[in-house]
Amino acid sequence: MGHRGNFVVSDKDTQLVIAHKMALILPFLMFWGYDFVTDFFKDHHIGGWFDTVWDEGSVLIDTQKKQIILYGGEHISRNIPHRQLYLQLMQYTWSGYNILWGHRGLIDILNQVKSHPFDITREGYSSYHATSLSILENDGLFDEWPESVISIKFTEDDIRVQYVYDSYELLPHGEALVNKMREVSQLRELEWEHDEIEFPVDGVHIDVTTKRVYFWSALKIHQPEQHEKKWEGWEFVWLKDDYQTHTKLTENRLKLPIPTFEESLQYLKAYLLINMTLDEYKATHEYGDKIKSHGLYVPYYPIYYLDQIPPIEERTKIFNDAVNAWRPSK
Length: 330
Fold this sequence. Notes:
This protein is of the alpha/beta class.
């Protein structure tokens, strides 16, 4: 299938749209600035717009408003703390631009461009069946890959929290979700600890006392309001990527492994300054293995294009200059 997306450059009078298959490495490519990234995508043009069904990672560069909206990537898109620092550093490699993450995916871009072939009122609505409520049994730990967390406040003294595979996909059950959690959820505290998933991908908090449903996600949610009708009489609060509010709503019964700035910085250095040829990778790794870079394991996809991006010496200078410019503000 490939990893499709849209690369859009808009100015006062024109709009360039390039469809591509670079969604997995879009944050990697975008970091190196306007001149590089526009030249790169002109060489990887495969057609016109991809819609929300096919789109996995896109970017809008508005040269008139000096604004960028982007989303996508294999790992940065799923780890919010790393991503937040990435966006701060990118402010210095795109001087003068306001850098925004597209929490609604392609919808955020379509709302800003001059023209597109889609009906936004219909794009991005999911037709999937809700995840079975049985996934909540055994506090969600029967699942091999719990990726998210869900919590519920029944009373001031009764707050419960647990692992689950995908908390957002439980919301279509409406109040049946509340009843199931009352029946099976047992944990009063949860400290996230998982060998493969460093940080949860999304989270839901249900406050029965105020009839509010809060949810956040590292991933794009095209139409965050689509499940509201299943919760008649409840207020929906979309937190975008604000996981901190979730932990506060649980009165810190939910504890997440928030990395320090230095830990996130070390990861970004390992990822952005990866330096291994494709031949070296094939000779020393099984297909799909992560690469050890600067002491950490990172996704291997960028190495397929290392001969088309700035050399390691230039990337190192760009990265270090961005870090040095960022540090005084901290």
